[in-house]
Amino acid sequence: MIERACRGVLTVAVLTTAGLAVAAPARAATADITVTSASAVTVDQLQVNGTVTCTGSTGAAHISVSATQVMPFSFGMAAMDVPCASGPVAWEIFIFSGFGWQSFHQVTVNAQMTDDVQGADSDSGNWWA
After folding, report:
1. Is the dihedral of CA 14, 19, 20, 21 positive or negative?
2. N or C end of the chain: smaller count of CB under 10 Å?
3. What's the CA gap between 12 and 5, in Å, rounded?
4. DSSP secondary structure letter of residue 46
């Protein structure tokens, strides 16, 4: 009787240990977009840089970026596709504005992304042109 109880306890202990030793399934990456900088490179071109992380390692990230400057008013937007990878991918986009970008004035940049696996994210920030 005691031998049977000990065998039962050992069986439960072995099964519990085996269950803990099994690796957890790999988690998919979370879609992420980050704007790292924005600056006027010419009177009418604003350069915006950032990184994007896709939900999967294949496919493409679809990026849309808009920028607004209030005083004096200026607005522009641009879009591009970036190939996905297993980690963050750097991107660079130029936003044209017929009104021109004034140096040393604040610019609000909004960036949105989706990927081929229905991942999505957005980021915004204020920069000095």
Report:
1. positive
2. N
3. 11
4. E
DSSP state of 71: T
How far is Cα 65 from Cα 108, in angstroms, rounded to an integer?
A: 11
Written as one letter, the residue type at 122 is S
Side chain identity at 118, as an amino acid letter?
Answer: Q
**First and final C-alpha spacing in the chain:** 82
- Residues 12-65 have pLDDT tens digits of 444 444 444 544 444 567 999 999 999 999 999 999 999 999 999 899 999 999
Residue ranges of domains in the chain, CATH in brackets: 32-128 (2.60.40.10)
Check if the beta carbon of residue 74 is closer than 8 Å to that of residue 102.
yes
Closest by Cα among 123, 91, 103 to 39: 103
What's the pTM? 0.75
